[in-house]
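Example 3.2
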Amino acid sequence: MSKKRKKSKFGANVVADISHQQRGGKGPSYLTLPKDVKLFKEKVGRIKVDILPYTVELENHLDYNKDAPDSAHVGNLWYKKPILIHRGIGPERNSYICPKSAGKTKCPICEERSRQFADGADAADVPGRIGKRNIYAVIPIGNKDYEEEVHIWDIAQGNFQEQLNQDLEESPESGIFPDLEDGLTLSIRFSEESFDKNKYAKATRIDFKDRDETYDEEILDEVPHLDSIINVLSYKELEAAFLELDEEDEDKDEDEEEEK
């Protein structure tokens, strides 16, 4: 006797998150990949992936929506981890995760950028511009370059999620795609784009296909805790990186504070 399947909580909540967003191997240095979990990287052409949910651990998840209790609330399953990245920091043009990605409210880079803008600085002259990315747990399907096992996929919002949002708005019933039992395989077409002489792959079409098989809940044990794999520096460390301070400068500042 087959057990009665529960109605998926993803569909409407995934689609509702679109408007909420609009309101609101070796991995990058800002990620710490669990042992034996590899990165997945998109490329021009067609790829197929199953996106799997993970259990939200962060109170102030960037997708948190108080009006959608089955969305990115602590303890719920959710399908992506949005992060905010400050780019072009220091002489090596490093990227750092904004503390707001980890539920914190204060960020020295955001504060300094706001101060400089208030003083009339041009946006092009102020380092640390912010970009939005999303982290997903995916299983590549039928890809000769990847095993069909859980991978971490880190990609810019504009290179995938925006196209996904657009397609879900036209086909809201496909919002169940991350569900373990009723989910769908995403067949994604990536086209080559270029910006400032750099070429990259950008999603231009997504088709939702029935999965060949469903996933048991045990697969969640293989999905990394996406809220925990991001590396967020302390306020002081970020401030030093942004202002290009070395340890000697920091010690001097502390001594001056103590003398006041």
